[in-house]
Amino acid sequence: MELPRSQLKGLVHTQGISRTDQLLLLLLADDTKPKLPKSLTAIGKDVGLRMAKWHISDMLRRTKGLAISVPGGWEVTAAGLDHLAARGLIGAVHIAQPATDLRALLPKITNQRTREFVEEAVVCYEAGAYRGSVVLSWIGSVSLLYEHVFHNKLAEFNAELASRASNPKQKPKPVVAIDDFTDIKEDSFLDMLQAISVIGKSVKDELKGSLQIGQNAAAAHLEVLIKNVFTKF
């Protein structure tokens, strides 16, 4: 949900609107990326609000989950969107639809344990815990890749691992147990998976990307992992 400045200007001056609701609306300005208090003050000034004496972070902490603090600033939660919609400040936000689309992909995951794990990530997404859903999907996908490589590509992986040694006389210890993968930096692990053709570049980039997670980004991230990792390995 994004609000252009022209629309935002009218909404924040709605008669009887609270400062809390004004802040929630400001968080929706322009894009869905998290915003710092100073950014919210600048946006507010642009739409005619005087916020110099507002204690923005304290006000947002008191919203009881309508907005949350995340790396990069503050963002509106699913509950916050419902709150604004209930007050007629924004249209009804059907956030369950992307989750419905994600759930439609679950039957394609043949391994029951894996499917249950991914469903937990989808449940997090449906609850508005977008970063939690990405963390769960990240842990699950990397674990699944460990197992796939160990059972199907171990010789190729160890050869690639040895070829990347900075000092030929000090070759890294080969992987002989699944737990040995955890000694390898995940960034390097994913590079090696691409090198031995376990995953493609787009999947590697998605896994390695440092994302500012909002609703749509989380849905896209989960969809990529379900289609390219969980249903294939």
Q: Could you characterize the architecture of this molecule?
A:
- The protein is 57% helix and 3% strand.
- It is mainly alpha-helical.
- It has two domains: 82 residues, Arc Repressor Mutant, subunit A, CATH 1.10.10; 135 residues, no CATH class.
- The chain has a two-stranded antiparallel ribbon with strand order 1-2.
- The longest helix is centred in the middle third of the chain and has 23 residues.
- It is elongated.
- The two termini are 34 Å apart.
- About 2% of the residues have low confidence.
Could you give the count of β-strands?
Answer: 2
Helix content: 55-70%
How many structural domains?
Answer: 2
Name the beta content range: under 5%
Computed Rg = 22 Å
Number of helices: 12
**Largest sheet features:** 2 strands, antiparallel
User: What's the shape?
Assistant: elongated
The helix/strand order is: HHHHEEHHHHHHHH
On the 0 to 100 scale, the average pLDDT is: 82
Unreliable stretches (pLDDT < 50, length at least 5) are 92-96
Question: What is the straight-line distance between the termini?
Answer: 34 Å
Class inferred from helices and paired strands: mainly alpha
- With strands numbered from the N-terminus, the spatial order across the biggest sheet is 1-2
Q: Main attributes?
A:
single chain, 233 residues, Arc Repressor Mutant, subunit A, 2 domains, two-stranded antiparallel sheet, 12 helices, elongated
